Amino acid sequence: MNRREFVISASGVAVAVFAPVRIAGQKKAIEADLGVLADGKGLNATKRTISRLTDGARKGVRLSEAEGEGPAYLPGIEFANGTIELDLKGKDVQGSSFIGVAFHGVDGTTFDAIYFRPFNFKTEDQARVLRAVQYISHPAHPWQKLRAEKPGQYEKPVKPVPDPNAWFHARVVVASPKVSVFVGDATEPCLTVTQLSDRKKGLVGIWVGNTSGGDFANFKIVPA
Question: Around Cβ 125, how many Cβ atoms within 10 Å?
Answer without folding.
Answer: 10
